Amino acid sequence: RLYQSHLQKQKQDNEMRIAQNVQVALLPESLPDIEGYSFFASYESAQAVGGDYYDCFTLPDDKVVISFGDVAGKGVPASLVMSRIASIVQCTLRHETDVQQAITTINDLMSSHSIDGRFVTYVLGLLDLKTNEVVFANGGHMCPLVRKADGSLVEVGEEEIGIPIGIMEGYPFDTVSYTLDPGDTVVIYTDGVSEAMNEAQELYSIERLKEVVAKSPADPEDLGIAIREDVRKHANGYPQNDDITLMTFGRV
Fold first, then answer.
1. Where are the beta strands (DSSP E) in the chain?
2. CB 79: neighbour CB atoms within 10 A?
3. Is 126 helix (H, G, I), strand (E, B) or coil?
4. CB-CB contact of 220 with 39 (8 Å)
5. Residues 235-248: tens digit of each pLDDT
6. Could you give the count of Cα atoms lying within 13 Å of 20 in the half-sphere of its Cβ?
């Protein structure tokens, strides 16, 4: 019986490794390489597969899509929902570049085959490289945080936050626009960052995140690495209890 149990465990572990490889393949292999801009992302799942998700890709007419989400829950169920929204976003944004209409379509498609309790907090952004304006729509996620060149912080779209994706069809999402100045860097993160815990069960917190963002280098990649390393420093080896994902981009 022990031998049979061992074989079954080996089979399950192998299937999880395959699932992990499939999920990683859904994330972008590389981020856009655009003169005057820099993009960075970091993804660490708490289990073999997870529910955090990000994407960033270019469109014709000098547009860049920023897509970022966090599925409620962890593990295999969350990863299946993550794979669904990843494919829906790609298909939708290839044909619809109006942010309000795009997030409405994404929400309707996710809601039409929703699973109870498996909603997605989500941020959709569309960056216009000609005007340096980024239009955001927010479905129940933390506001994007902008670090200005002087280290001051701006939270974008706090009043425009809608409900999470996959709860109700036809929800009227709002959008908010923000023009990036030279040196501005946008930070988007999941609650796995702000709620990372140490052995004393102390949360990393949004306040500490803001402090690190304000005092760290303005370069998006350097800033993203600084945040990631500070979260690890806070955890100090304590087991990760949620997926930790962040994305930074901005004008250099």
1. 37-44, 52-59, 63-71, 120-128, 133-139, 145-147, 153-155, 161-162, 175-179, 185-189, 244-251
2. 26
3. strand
4. yes
5. 999 998 889 999 99
6. 13
